[in-house]
Amino acid sequence: MSMADRANTNGRNVNPDAAVKDPDDWVTGDEPPTAAQESYLHTLAQEAGEPVPEGLTKAEASRRIDELQAETGRGR
């Protein structure tokens, strides 16, 4: 990765991909989804014509959002 591909924050070069964690590694992954996740998940599911499963965890909701983004073409 070149220097141009890195963000510069407070004089430090930061790899923006380093902040992206797999949902399985989230400390709060077993908690219920956030309100923002719920809202976006319902929007994407409606666009895709798919139901939203009940009782998802925060990590499961994140994975489903990723799947629905790929299916609907959002989030590119």
UniProtKB/TrEMBL annotation:
Lineage, top-rank taxon, reads Bacteria
- Here the segments flagged for biased composition (Basic and acidic residues) are 60-76
Question: Which Pfam families does this one have?
Answer: DUF3072
Which residue ranges does the record annotate as region Disordered? 1-76
Q: What is this protein called?
A: DUF3072 family protein
Organism of provenance: Micromonospora echinospora
